[in-house]
C-alpha cells in the first residue's frame, strides 16, 4: 500500500497541514504528544516525502550547492578541514530537510556547468579568491554564503552592492598575530612561517595569516626574515635549515601534523626542541603525538552558521548580517616549549 501524507493525517486524526508542518520542522503550534505520534506513524510506514513534488509546489529544490575552491581537480576529502565544514553544513541541512551537492571548483566554468544540471536554492562557497568571487557574483542569482573568503576592503565597505552575498570568516590576521605573539613571549626570536603555496599580494586566508605574523614580529622589534619562510613544496629545504629556527608558525593543523611526522622520520623533532603552533584545532590535533598547540577556529561551527544563514534566508525570508567575523582561541598543548 502506498502511504501518503493524507493517510498519515487520517491515522493521526490531524490535518494534512499539521503533518506537513511536522515533516518540515515547523510544528511550533503542535503539541509534543501530537508530534511524537505523527513521527511514530511516519517511522512505522518508513514514509519519505517526495522532494521533487514538493519542489514543484513550492518552487524550491531544497538543494544547496557546496563549492570548494581547489587548485587540484579532485577535492582532498582526507583533509579534516574539508570534512569538518561539511559536517557542520550537513548537520543543519538534514535538520531542515535540505540536500547538499559537493563540487570542487577551479574556475568559473565549473560553476556554470553544475548550474546547467541542477536547480539550487542557494550556495555555500569555501576559500574563493577575489577574481573568482567577482565572476561568481555575475552568474549566481540565489543567496551564496562565502566561508574563509577574504576580499578587497572595497567589497566589504560597499557590501550593499552584493545583496545575495554573505561572508563568514575568521579574523585570520588577528589569529596569526595571537599565535606569533605567544611564541615571542616565550622568548623565541627566530620564528619561521610554513604554509601551502600562496600569493603574498592577493588577499586570502594564508595571506592574512602571513600579514599577522609579520605584524607581530614588527611589534616586538624583530625584522621579518624571508629566509625563514617556506611553503610545503620547499619541505626538503626547510629540513636542511632547521638550525635557523626556534619556532615555526604553520598555517594549518593538517600541514603541521604532516610536518611533525616528517621531522620524526628524520629523527629531528625531539632532538631540536622546535616549537610548532598552527591553526584550526581539527579533531586530530589533540590526538597527535605530541598534542598540537593551535588556534581553535571551529570549522564545524562555521559550517553550521553558514547553513543556518541559508535556512533563515530561503525558508524564513529573514534579513541576515552579511558579514560575520569569528575570533580564534589559543589552545596550548605540547608542541611549544
From TrEMBL:
<dbReference type="Pfam" id="PF13377">
    <property type="entry name" value="Peripla_BP_3"/>
</dbReference>
<keyword id="KW-0804">Transcription</keyword>
<dbReference type="InterPro" id="IPR000843">
    <property type="entry name" value="HTH_LacI"/>
</dbReference>
<dbReference type="Pfam" id="PF00356">
    <property type="entry name" value="LacI"/>
</dbReference>
<protein>
    <recommendedName>
        <fullName>HTH lacI-type domain-containing protein</fullName>
    </recommendedName>
</protein>
<keyword id="KW-0238">DNA-binding</keyword>
<feature type="domain" description="HTH lacI-type">
    <location>
        <begin position="3"/>
        <end position="58"/>
    </location>
</feature>
<dbReference type="GO" id="GO:0000976">
    <property type="term" value="F:transcription cis-regulatory region binding"/>
</dbReference>
<dbReference type="InterPro" id="IPR028082">
    <property type="entry name" value="Peripla_BP_I"/>
</dbReference>
<dbReference type="InterPro" id="IPR046335">
    <property type="entry name" value="LacI/GalR-like_sensor"/>
</dbReference>
<dbReference type="GO" id="GO:0003700">
    <property type="term" value="F:DNA-binding transcription factor activity"/>
</dbReference>
<dbReference type="InterPro" id="IPR010982">
    <property type="entry name" value="Lambda_DNA-bd_dom_sf"/>
</dbReference>
<keyword id="KW-0805">Transcription regulation</keyword>
Amino acid at each position: 500500500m502506498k502511504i501518503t501524507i493524507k493517510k498519515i493525517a487520517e491515522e493521526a486524526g490531524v490535518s494534512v497541514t499539521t503533518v506537513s508542518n511536522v515533516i518540515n520542522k515547523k510544528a511550533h503550534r503542535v503539541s509534543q504528544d501530537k508530534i511524537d505520534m505523527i513521527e511514530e506513524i511516519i517511522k512505522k510506514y518508513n514514509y519519505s516525502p517526495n522532494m521533487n513534488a514538493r519542489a514543484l509546489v513550492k518552487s524550491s529544490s531544497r538543494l544547496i550547492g557546496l563549492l570548494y575552491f581547489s587548485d587540484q581537480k579532485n577535492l582532498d576529502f582526507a583533509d579534516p578541514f574539508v570534512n569538518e565544514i561539511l559536517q557542520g553544513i550537513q548537520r543543519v541541512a538534514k535538520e531542515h530537510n535540505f540536500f547538499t551537492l559537493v563540487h570542487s571548483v577551479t574556475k568559473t566554468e565549473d560553476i556554470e556547468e553544475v548550474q546547467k544540471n541542477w536547480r539550487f536554492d542557494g550556495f555555500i562557497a569555501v576559500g574563493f579568491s577575489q577574481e573568482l568571487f567577482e565572476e561568481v557574483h555575475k552568474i549566481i542569482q540565489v543567496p551564496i554564503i562565502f566561508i574563509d573568503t577574504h576580499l578587497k576592503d572595497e567589497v566589504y565597505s560597499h557590501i550593499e552592492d552584493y545583496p545575495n552575498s554573505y561572508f563568514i570568516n575568521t579574523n585570520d590576521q588577528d589569529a596569526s598575530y595571537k599565535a606569533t605573539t605567544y611564541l615571542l613571549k616565550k622568548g623565541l626570536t627566530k620564528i619561521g612561517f610554513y604554509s601551502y603555496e600562496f600569493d603574498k599580494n592577493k588577499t586570502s586566508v594564508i595571506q592574512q595569516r602571513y600579514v599577522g605574523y609579520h605584524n607581530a614580529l614588527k611589534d616586538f622589534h624583530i625584522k621579518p626574515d624571508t629566509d625563514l619562510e617556506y611553503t610545503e613544496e620547499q619541505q626538503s629545504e626547510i629540513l636542511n635549515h632547521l638550525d635557523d629556527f626556534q619556532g615555526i608558525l604553520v598555517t594549518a593543523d593538517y600541514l603541521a601534523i604532516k610536518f611533525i611526522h616528517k621531522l620524526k622520520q628524520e629523527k629531528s623533532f625531539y632532538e631540536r626542541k622546535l616549537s610548532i603552533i598552527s591553526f584550526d584545532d581539527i579533531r586530530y590535533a589533540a590526538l597527535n603525538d605530541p598534542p598540537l598547540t593551535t588556534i581553535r577556529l571551529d570549522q564545524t561551527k562555521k559550517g553550521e552558521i553558514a547553513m543556518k544563514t541559508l535556512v533563515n534566508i530561503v525558508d524564513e525570508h529573514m534579513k541576515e548580517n552579511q558579514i560575520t567575523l569569528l575570533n580564534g582561541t589559543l589552545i596550548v598543548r605540547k608542541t611549544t616549549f
